[in-house]
Write a structure and sequence with these properties.
This protein is of the alpha+beta class. The chain is built from five helices and five strands. It has a five-stranded antiparallel β-sheet. Helix 3 (about 40-55) runs antiparallel to helix 4 (about 60-65) and helix 3 packs across helix 5.
């Protein structure tokens, strides 16, 4: 390897190590880690969902998770589906996505913005080959706070 190529590689690795270089990390397929998400961000909602899912008391976890659901997901049928199936499954698999138990950290492998305002965050799990989506969208009925619309964790 030439000296110029080595310097370029070192420079690229240094850039990837910077905390604010999420865009480049995503484009190159490396993803980025979230240890302590910034309040009010989609990552914070996903981190809170993981915390709710790993809460030892299932009912307490459900109450916390319910606060994170988008208003569109709070009709009777949707809530029954979330509590009876989706949240129960999420509780079984949530620890597969957690990289740091103390902070409930996780790794985002890909982000996809959708036409309907939803943003899907694909989380890495060493137990699967494909990253798993958790989708959020601003909720106008909750001061445009990010809230969960779909989540397959």
């Amino acid at each position: 390897m030439t000296r110029t190529a080595r310097l370029a590689l070192i420079g690229l690795l240094a850039l990837l190590a910077l905390p604010g270089c999420q865009f480049l990390r995503l484009k190159l397929g490396f993803g980025y880690g979230v240890d302590v998400a910034v309040a009010g961000t989609p990552e914070a909602v996903i981190q809170d969902a993981l915390k709710a899912a790993i809460e030892p008391d299932a009912e307490k976890g459900w109450v916390e998770f319910l606060k994170l659901l988008h208003t569109e997901q709070k009709d009777k049928g949707s809530l029954e589906s979330w509590k009876g199936l989706k949240f129960r499954e999420m509780r079984k698999k949530a620890t597969n996505y957690v990289t740091n138990v103390a902070t409930t950290g996780f790794t985002v492998k890909r982000v996809r913005e959708e036409d309907d305002g939803n943003v899907s965050y694909f989380l890495h799990s060493p137990k699967t080959d494909m990253p798993t989506p958790c989708t959020v969208k601003p909720d106008p009925e909750q001061s445009n706070a990010w809230r969960i619309t779909r989540c397959s964790l």
